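User: Could you check the structure of this?
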Amino acid sequence: MNRKYEEFLLVSKKLNKGLNIVPVLYGSLGLEIVTGIDFSPQDIDILVPKRFLDENWPLLMETMEKLGYTQIDLHEHKFKKSDIEIGFAFEEHLLPFARIHYNKLEIITDQNVSYKLLSEEEYLLVYKQSVKDSYRRTKNNNKDLKKIEILEKILN
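Assistant: Sure, the predicted structure tokens are below.
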């Protein structure tokens, strides 16, 4: 099984039990799980309730430190442990960004770990919005356009 996915499950288990969070597996790793296609994710993107990036940030930070992670970027809410990077963002952003109701996402249970996962249709909405973002266009060298193309083929 994918090493990054196994790490996601390990982190999510702590989030489930310690902070009562059912996180959203997001980004390329989430897309990989949904489609079964290798997108070679560079990191693990996790969405959590906004309060854990604001007033409850110390709790999330402490949880990650207990798992052996070091914070490497406060603005991006990024952590690193050896060669694995995890970035956190808030799930509430899905609604204004891509009109996705984060509280209606499918909940998956794998190895007694619960997490939420976007559908292929929802990922298509996300990546169509992402290509409009100049920061992402520069950062991702149009990888998002390739993902849109693949998702459109899958869905049609």
